[in-house]
Amino acid sequence: MQDIRNIAIIAHVDHGKTTLVDRILHQVKLFRDNQDMGELILDSNDLERERGITILAKNVSVRYKGVKINIIDTPGHSDFGGEVERVLNMADGVILLVDAFEGPMPQTRFVLQKAIALGLKPIVVVNKVDKPNCSPDEVHEAVFELMYSLDASEDQLDFQTLYGSSKQGWMSHGWQEPTQDISALLDTILEVIPPPEEKTGTLQMQISSLDYSSYLGRIAVGRITRGNIKMGMPVSVVKRNGSVARSVVKELYRFEGLGKEKVKTEISSGEICAVLGIENFEIGDTIADAELPEAMKPINVDEPTMSMLFTINNSPFFGKEGIYVTSRHIRDRLFKETEKNLAMRVEETGSPEKLLVYGRGILHISILVETMRREGYEFQLGQPQVIVKEKNGRKYEIKFSLEEAMEYIKGDEYVEVTPKSIRLRKILLEETERKRQKGQGNV
Ligand SMILES: Nc1nc2c(ncn2[C@@H]2O[C@H](COP(=O)(O)OP(=O)(O)OP(=O)(O)O)[C@@H](O)[C@H]2O)c(=O)[nH]1
Ligand SMILES: [Mg+2]
User: Fold this and answer.
1) If you take atom 24 of ligand 1, which residue's CA is the nearest one?
2) pLDDT tens track of the chain, all 443 residues?
3) Which residues pair with 124 in a beta bridge?
4) Is ligand 1 within 6 A of the CB of residue 331?
5) Which residue, of 57, 164, 269, 309, has the fewest CB within 10 Å?
6) 14 lines ligand 1 (CB under 6 A)
7) Ligand 1 neighbourhood includes 19 CB (under 6 angstroms)
8) Nearest CA to ligand 1 atom 4
9) Considering the entire predicted model, what is its pTM?
10) Whose CA is nearest to atom 7 of ligand 1?
11) Ligand 1 pocket check: which of 45, 99, 167, 171 to mutate, most ligand atoms within 8 Å of Cβ?
């Protein structure tokens, strides 16, 4: 088996994940020296470029000192937390990036918690040490405390920390000792992230992500957890509800650089690959042995927190902006979205012209609205509604589950608790986080 490392890069929004991936791609000389790729290479779709944020998690693969490193860049905005959750199961380790000025933020906690729970080995990168008035040492301390409070194992707590600036293109073991490049980080990855465990037996590969090609159709992406996979091999697809369908692997791809490479030989456990030819699959399904299919645990995704009504445009301006205007068009498009957008749900209402779309937040839904508008759909929108759930006679908004909310409340005097709702005030929470970094808080 070839030497592999699978890592995901996680952080709060804008802490510099995609910029770090740029640096890695340049360091391993994926491009010619005179080739100008611009910045944020992985933020490749139009909306990502315009907004400067990552929306979809993406895989790239580089070779460093004879080892293949599969890297998964994840989005940091909390609305796309569902993306992070499902791709983490392809990784054996994570790079937790923290801004040297801001320190750990709410989403740092959220994504780190998921990584810790999955038993992934972390490497901490205190990024943006070029910022004036930053406090890298305190940030390092705060990350340790955060990890401790999340019940990290001893091995996880024994993490290595690198300091540096993705923007300036260097990483080092000390923030006052700038280096020329990011080899310190790449060496640390080879050293501390365990190679994937080789498991022999019947095939198991959970579909964690989906790729789409206009002429090849839907492509299933995931990590082979056990056994081998090969082109032409008959397989079973086990769905969330336990039903099994037969299928055949038509084509097989491996990630290589920014693209994919067709593979005719066998790919064995530990590698991340893309499979073509599987019909009617959903994210979370298991591709398994044809004769003895064994499903993997389904992927859990957080519940939607917000809903919005999509209706056909029945105003006098009907048909002026879009080409797809009927309820059938809108309905088909919305249901298609739920196939790849795992945290999104669409519900029928009494009327065929109205559909309720549930998402993880305003940004999550608005990205869909904007994408559809650009594709030529025309529709009307209702007011966004926060979903209120009731548990033990108490009503609460589910940006966080009640259990998660309680976690925050422990020792946090800034959370407003009323008999009817537990409202987490983001601003206050961020203030406490900041105070805590300065050693004044008690979270
Ligand atoms: N000063 C400074 N700015 C940085 C550094 N790294 C990234 N940035 C800037 O921070 C901003 C956000 O960087 P991104 O790489 O898009 O951050 P991200 O974590 O991928 O953001 P999301 O994917 O949206 O969560 C950009 O404007 C970068 O230029 C750094 O080391 N120093
Ligand atoms: Mg990004």
Assistant:
1) 53
2) 579 999 999 999 999 999 999 999 998 887 776 677 778 888 888 888 888 899 888 899 999 999 999 999 999 888 888 788 889 989 999 999 999 999 999 889 989 999 999 999 999 999 999 999 999 999 999 999 999 999 999 999 999 999 999 999 999 999 999 999 999 999 999 999 999 988 889 999 999 988 877 677 789 999 999 999 999 999 999 998 889 999 999 999 999 988 888 999 999 999 999 999 888 888 889 999 999 999 998 887 777 888 999 999 888 888 888 889 899 999 999 998 887 787 899 999 989 899 999 998 889 999 999 999 999 999 999 988 887 766 676 666 655 544 555 554 544 434 444 433 344 445 445 556 666 666 544 43
3) 96, 161
4) no
5) 309
6) yes
7) yes
8) 167
9) 0.84
10) 16
11) 167
- Ion ligand 2: residues, CB within 5 A, are 17-18, 54
- Tokens 């001893």 label which residue? 154
- Tell me how far the alpha carbon of residue 16 lies from the centroid of ligand 1, in angstroms: 3
